[in-house]
Amino acid sequence: MNREKFTIWIDADACPKAVRSIVFRAAFRLDLQVRIVANCHIPAPATSRIKCIRVEAGPDVADKYIIDAVSAGDIVITADIPLANEVVRAGALAIDIRGQLYSDDNIGQRSAIRDLLHDLREEGMRLGGPKPFGQKDKQRFAATFDRTVTKRIRELENETALSGGDE
Description:
The protein contains 5 helices and 6 strands. It has a 6-stranded mixed beta sheet, with helices on both faces. The chain is α/β, with parallel strands linked by helices and 167 residues long. The protein is globular. The relative contact order is 0.16. The protein has helices spanning 17-30, 61-69, 81-89, 104-122, 135-162, and strands at residues 7-11, 33-38, 50-54, 75-77, 93-95, 101-102.
């Protein structure tokens, strides 16, 4: 089966090292393509399977790169809700760093909450940020990521079987 039919993208500017490590281990174990997009140097294993793409600093530059490069069926790891929305609309899968799979069913609600919190901050309300990334978040991410990658690989295997294995 050709696993190069999908790529795992990491919006790495705010991605915890623990999440990247989980993705790197899967890339080695399952022979997957990973692209890390960030506006600074992100350490990654030296392998042709994992490529780092450094973009210019600036708001949403990494997001725009991913949006332009992502294909249907790819998997994107991001905490950025607007990026996740664009990715889902493009037919790709998006996973939050805390393990929630974004979907058409939940992305609208997540966007509305994000916008409300932004508006409250603009009005001067002091809101606490997200809680620190912890062990339970890492476990949730690992479980969701594993399920999502396994499902995607099975879909490709089924496509290959249906087409007679010519791919």
